[in-house]
Amino acid sequence: MNEPEANGDLLVASGVRKEFGGLLAVNDLDFTIPQRSIVSLIGPNGAGKTTFFNMLTGLYRATAGSIVFDGVDITEKPPHAITKLGVGRTFQNIRLFPQMTALENVLVGMHARLKGGILGSIFGLPRVRREESEAEEKARELLAFSGLRRADDELAENLSYGDQRRLEVARALATEPKLLLLDEPTAGMNPQETAAFLAFVGTLREERPIAILLIEHDMKVVMGASERVTVLDYGEKIAEGPPKEIQKDERVIEAYLGKAATS
Amino acid sequence: MGPRARQLRARVDASADRLATRTGLNRLAARWRRIPRRYRSWVPFLILLAVAIAYPFYVTHTPTNIPLILTLPTVHDTVTILVFVVMAVGLNVVVGYAGLLDLGYVAFYAIGAYTAGWLASGQFQQINFHFGAVGVGSSETGIHISVWLVLLIAGVVTSIGGILIGLPTLRLRGDYLAIVTLGFGEIVPQFVRNADNLHGFDLTHGTFGISPIDAPGFGQSLHNTVGLPVRYDDSFPPTPDRLFFWTVLGILLLTIFCSIRLRDSRLGRAWIAIREDETAAGAMGIPLMRTKTWAYAIGAFFGGVAGAYVATFNSGAFPSQFDFNISIFLLCMVILGGMGSIWGVVLAGTILAWLNVEGLANIGSWLNANIFPASHQIDVPKYEFGIYGIIIVLMMLFRPVGLIPERRRKREIEEGTRGSLDEPLYEMRGADEPGAGERGSPGRVPRG
After folding, report:
1. Which of A83, A113, A121 sits opposite B283 (nearest CB)?
2. For B325, which of A81, A144, B70, B109 is 20 to 30 Å away at the CA?
3. Helix, strand or coil for residue A30?
4. Inter-chain residue contact A132 with B266, CB threshold 8 Å
């Protein structure tokens, strides 16, 4: 599995920088995601993880630097175009469409992969009908795959917290991503839910040819799940490597626990 | 439920059953059950449609002293009411589906009306262009295109207008969008009022408006072969009002049909997703600008068709028709009916437009005759917007989801009362208790 260089990197971010007024949120960050890998980005609260994440998905525009995904420069592209290229994401604080059913949420995720136009929908052309029913079937499969079998017609806002997280992943998978970005997916979960979710991410990884970027501030969560961990602090990369090394890295311990802990 | 209550209920049920058998209601119910379920929802719609189509035949025979409302609206007024409903359904696409607050919808109404004015009247005397217009002498100057075609063209032209207005404004969110659309709603009528001398060229005929505008019709040959009216405005029988009424009913049905189909399409889902969470919608691959612009264009299309139809119905387009109030009035219909709910908007649109056209005047004169003393007569229509305001405030307090809430919102309320009345009611028992679920068809486990 450890031959990403042969395939090339799926995502290459070089010298990415983001300033909010005088605040430097991300400072000249270099970051790569190899094909089919599962990597993590961790750091204390306010380290710039989500800011970086939002630049990858087009929500923020980088002040400087470039982001290349699958050979395409996406630095200046809007979110929907990046999604279409194959970047799916979830949000740190769940952002489902609360008044839509679980099924509809997933169907929205498929938007970029469907073609049905205005006139086709109004006249109910067979092509559009077929596409819709196929999409629905596929959406039900995705929901079942994500462990939401009986929730298809439930409004998203009525789902339990854990199920909402799962639905967010299902919706992101519906965009047919090559890279799945999970922003603190286990935030607010208890240890059992966290373990179940990580097992789900493991299955996902085995069954689908996608790369996963996991953002976490809880170090314990990512250690078991990821192949490579990058640690951010104050917008700068302070360490990068396999989980075992990171756990021993003095600068990381310092960032998390303060200086006294290292001495 | 105690044993006595149960006994009482059994007795009530039994006597209700006897009554139903005697009156033949049971047979009706049995017949109702034989209709396949997927067609059942059509029944109320078809009844309503039949009542609507037959309206011109019974309206003249209804009493004119009904308490409070006095009389049903005349066929002539009903045309105006239905045109407003068409526009409300169009605005519902913008406001209800896509969640874009548009306070300038009247601009689309005006563009539609003036497009009809330009393409089906003698406004441009320099030109002599005829295409399919009925009852217009070939020597008459101006552009005379068949009104049916003009309705379509007006829709398309207004759509383009909607896109042009949308491109710079739709980047804005919420309140800012509302303010800018408000501005456009004012600009268009002002432009129309002042465009009678554009470097010597009379585009809109200023405050006098464009009049007369050609009437719709099917021409002599269709009249001779299938009996369709030659020209609406000099037809008898049926009277012009009736023809205009049936035609606008058809336009309304088409509008509702398109609106439902769009709601349930990929585009409709994208609109609702944008309404729910714009950022998440963008991250899910929905192109925000393009999708919102489509909502604008389609909303504008219906507004344009309605405007053109009113123009041909009144045989004129006048700047005084396109008051800012109309935008607010249409918005009231959408809010009152339930944002995004087509049938709610149709119902609320009918009620409000009727109040506007003659309802308030009728209610006022009934109140003056029966309630208020002669010394304190009140001119009710004068308080029109105060009354609409009170209606909206009351709605927001007591039924914020609207008269007929949108399906997805209604489902939320109805949660817990699942299952239809046709199925036997279950009593809840634990799944491990003996006899659990045995009262229904096998394999069906009660849910609760």
Report:
1. A83
2. B70
3. strand
4. yes
3-class DSSP assignment, residue B342: helix
Domain regions of chain A by residue span: 4-86+177-262, 100-170
Asked if B294's CB is within 8 angstroms of A108's CB, the reply is no
pLDDT of amino acid B291? 94
- Answer whether A163's CB lies under 8 Å from A106's CB: no
Distance CA B115, CA B119 (A): 6
ipTM for this model: 0.90
- How many contacts (CB atoms, under 8 Å) link A and B? 110
Q: Please tell me the CATH code under which domain A4-86+177-262 is placed.
A: 3.40.50.300
Instruction: Give the SS3 label for residue A98.
Output: coil
Radius of gyration for chain A, computed over Cα atoms and rounded to the nearest angstrom:
19
Residue B162 counted as domain residue: yes
Q: Could you tell me which chain A residue has the CA closest to the CA of B411?
A: A155
- Residue in this structure with the two tokens 């009354």, named with its chain if needed: B387
Task: For residue B290, tell me if it sits in a domain.
Answer: yes
Q: Does the beta-carbon distance from B269 to A128 stay under 8 Å?
A: no
Instruction: Give the model confidence (pLDDT) of B67-76 as tens digits.
Output: 888 888 999 9
Do residue B282 and residue A116 have CB atoms under 8 angstroms apart? no
Dihedral sign for Cα B440, B441, B446, B447, please. Answer: negative
* Contact call for B261 and A124, based on CB within 8 A: yes
Q: In angstroms, rounded to a whole number, what is the distance separating the alpha carbons of residues A242 and A226? A: 8
Euclidean distance between CA atoms B431 and B414, whole angstroms: 25
A57 CB neighbours in chain B (<8 A) are 283
Per-residue confidence (pLDDT) for residue A259, from 0 to 100: 65
Q: Do B266 and A175 touch (CB under 8 A)?
A: no
Nearest CA in chain A to B295: A118
Question: Nearest residue of B to residue A170 by CA position?
Answer: B284
* Sign of the torsion formed by the C-alpha atoms of B424, B427, B430 and B432: negative
Instruction: Give the SS3 label for residue B136.
Output: coil
Examine residue B98 and state whether it is found in any structural domain, yes or no: yes
Contact A100 B273 (CB under 8 A): yes
Hey, which bits of B71-224 come out as E strands? 120-121, 128-131, 142-145
Cα distances (Å, whole numbers) of residue B107 to A70, B103, B301? 46, 9, 12
Separation between Cα atoms, residue A244 and residue A228, nearest integer Å: 9
Residue B43 has pLDDT above 80, yes or no: yes
Residue A174 in tokens: 């519906």
- Cβ proximity of A244 and A61 under 8 Å: no
Residue of A nearest to B255 (CA): A122
Tell me the C-alpha distance between A241 and A145, whole Å. Answer: 31
Provide the domain limits for residue B285. Answer: 75-323
Return the residue in B253, B275, B284, B408 with the most chain A beta carbons within 10 A, the one to mutate for interface testing. B284
pLDDT of residue B448: 33
User: Helix A126-145 crosses helix A161-174 at what angle (to 10 degrees)?
Assistant: 140
B262–A109 CB contact, under 8 Å: no
State the pTM of this model.
0.85
Burial class (CB in 10 A: 0-12, 13-18, 19+), B238: middle
Find the helix or strand (DSSP H, E) in which B185 lies. Answer: helix B174-194
Please give, rounded to a whole number of angstroms, the shortest distance from the CA of B159 to a CA of chain A: 14
The total number of structural domains in chain B stands at: 1
Strands B128-131 and B120-121: unpaired
